[in-house]
Amino acid sequence: MYSRRKALGQHFLISDGIADKIVSSLGIPPGARILEVGPGRGFLTERLIKAGYEVVGIEKDEVLFQKLKELHHRKLTVLNEDILNINLKTFVEEHSISAIVSNLPYVISTRFVEKLVREMPSVEEIVLMFQKEVADKLIAPAGSRNTGPLSIALQEFFSVRKLFNVKPGAFNPPPSVQSSVLKMTPLSGSSLERELSGEYLDFLFLLFENRRKKIKHKLNLQCEIENSVFDKRAEEIDARMLRELFRCYRSSLQSNSVE
User: Fold this and answer.
1) Is this prediction's pTM over 0.70?
2) Where are the domains positioned within the chain?
3) pLDDT tens, the chain, 259 aa long
4) I need a surface site. Which of 36, 64, 228, 232 has the fewest CB within 10 A?
């Protein structure tokens, strides 16, 4: 009998209905290859394979990795690695991955989203499970109190929507909070180049430090931007104006480096 490792934030999915809803949410055709992060005991993995997908699983837990290898399925490849140490963009290209799916361990969920934003893997869709509170923050629009650097940067490059909530009883052991499943689809018409995603996220982290401070106390910029923006806090600024501030900030850095 496997005993979960608390340090890995393991809550194993045991609900057939939820697993089936995750699989049915995928828009990619059977035969496509999916990266599953933390397949655990293979509960969702087996349903993905049954639906006709090839699965590449990244499992950090050595014991679970060995158990997954025992499935001996020709459509399953399992690697004993830490996903946070893998370059997603490179991995996705090398393994021809079409989608990323995961019941994310809670302890890595926000770090994994940051990794998605910084590395921008070229996939068609991403379906991930989060704590409901985290999911609600990730879908919060710029200019709202619940927003933050990750949600703004994520929504700049992905269409993000909640598919459904999941009750604690769908897991073993049950977590103390509800969960939510989000679907992310890369945007083809982002106003910022994908190559700037990491820079933009760093800028947002800077902007959201000391959330109570107004922009004029954080940035000293000379740009053709509405003066009223500088009297606002980061959480009060909409996505369009945040992009304008970023362009101005980036231009200022480049000018200073030339001087």
Assistant:
1) yes
2) 6-186, 209-258
3) 444 444 445 799 999 999 999 999 999 999 999 999 999 999 999 999 999 999 999 999 999 999 999 987 999 999 999 999 999 999 999 999 999 999 999 999 999 999 999 999 999 999 999 999 999 999 999 999 899 999 999 999 999 999 999 999 999 999 999 999 999 999 988 789 999 999 999 999 999 998 889 998 888 877 778 888 889 999 999 999 999 999 989 988 776 654 5
4) 228
